[in-house]
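User: Hello! I'm new to structural biology and keep hearing that structure can be predicted from sequence alone. Could you demonstrate with Putative DNA double-strand break repair helicase HerA? Please show me the input and the output so I can see what each looks like.

Assistant: Of course. The first part below is the input, the amino acid sequence of Putative DNA double-strand break repair helicase HerA. The second part is the output, the predicted structure written as tokens.
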Amino acid sequence: MNDMSNQNFAAAGQAHAGTEPRPAPAQPQIQTPAEPQAVTAPADNASQPIGVVLEISGAGSQIAIDLERLNECMADEDPSIALAGQVGSQIKIRVGDSWLLANVRNQRQDRRQGGGIIANIDFLGEGAEEKLTGRIHSFRRGVTRYPVPGALIYPATTADLKQIYASDGRSNIQIGKVYPTKDIRAGLYIDAMLGKHFALLGSTGTGKSTSAALILHRICEAAPQGHIVMIDPHGEYSAAFKTNGQLLDVSNLNMPYWLMNFQEHCEVLLTSTGNERQVDADILAKCLLRARSKNRLAESIGQITVDAPIPYLLSDLSNEIQNEMGQLDKATSSAPYMRVKNKLEEVKNDPRYQFMFSGMLVGDTMADFLSRIFRMPSAGKPISIIDVSGVPSDITSTVVAVLSRLVFDFAIWGREEKTTPILLVCEEAHRYVPSEAKADGSSVGDILSKIAKEGRKYGISLGLITQRPSDLAEGVLSQCGTIISMRLNNDRDQAFVKAAMPEGARGFLDSIPALRNRECIICGEGVAIPIRVSFDNLEEIKRPASEDPSFTELWQQSGGEEDAVERIVQRWRSQNK
């Protein structure tokens, strides 16, 4: 670049830095060389400045951009240079012998400069410069040395971004392409992402389920001996993991009822509220402990607690309640005992609860059950998909609570053994970890919050997938070290995600409402710097069954409706899918 251009940019910086306003004509313009070409060669665009630093602050700065230079860059063949200076794009600033990379957060017209643009930027990190090529290398997050007002701004090229997004040697999975480039692969660092939890957010219809399946498939391919538990509330993911996953639903889950702790027993068996609930809980605690104590395991252990996962017979629990009721004096009401006993009989006899309360589940199958759920050994199928769509709605949250608590307790009691990391993925997370305003006091919210806060100490990773991040419990999203945000249409959700994301991602976050389907913003521990990614296409056989039905196609078909209605009514009545 010639000396005249440097002087013009420097003059522009001094003009903006001045404290006293001056008439517009007296302001020096940010100019390009005297004879700009209509379409500049890529090398020229990369080597010529597009603006100047006006103001510096800790997290970001303010810059002035020349509109004419932006127009020249738009015609460049390099897509990174073509977007230079635009919202969400990356620019670079030379500081000594290093390059400082920044992200453009916003733009506004500079009224004093007659056609110029003022923009705020967020610093992302810095890298050293190769002396021969001028390229960036050894890029790292954070800033050690800031530029000064008047420093020149240059467009970041695709070659620069390749160096910045290149893997630093850590284990990673590739999930798509970095926007706006055509060939830079976007990777996620597995250990960093799973070590500090992650969240996948996106409104309905943005491709969230397919993107979740893509990430989990990539993890399974990278770690075929892994241990992943997926809670699937809608039965979408069974279709996606037929070849490399263990599929469990009400027909084959066989989850023993006695694995529930006392709090979970209360959720299933107690129907009362207020003071009555405490009376009923006291009765259940006394009788449950006695029922557990009758097992030979209890005799060999000695002193046991009401929470101990020791098998007991439902008939023993019922008999204990009956015996307690028979010892009452006339002044004491038998109503609390009848409430608990009647609910127990209802659960025992209801066919919908047989996956959990079957009389066949009384044997000590705890080790087999945990091995099956946690994929130990994985046998080439590292993920277990637990479809809870067939579970009665009144105990769905309790079933999820039991499964989540088993993951946590297994890790706690396994501290003496070799660490066995487990990834717990929870779809529709806002249903199970709701905010205080929507909390119902269920145990599932407590255990998932505990895993979010303490799980990483014990090798448990939590993956939260939700379309309503603003309905999540306060603090849970901030515990997620990596946030993958697809398009969010709701203002409250957008504000909630912005509050949880790091400062340097602001420019990316402002583009969340403008993301296309199957595009996302990723920031946090799992990536070197915040990036916008276009997800890869997933093979048909690996996609979840989450596509919306075509009304126009289905409403043009006819035939067999009467028989279908009969079959539906039959299944409805028998409560059997």
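User: So the tokens describe the shape?

Assistant: Right, they're a compact way of writing down the 3D structure. Reading them back into a model, for example: DSSP finds 21 helices and 18 strands in the chain.
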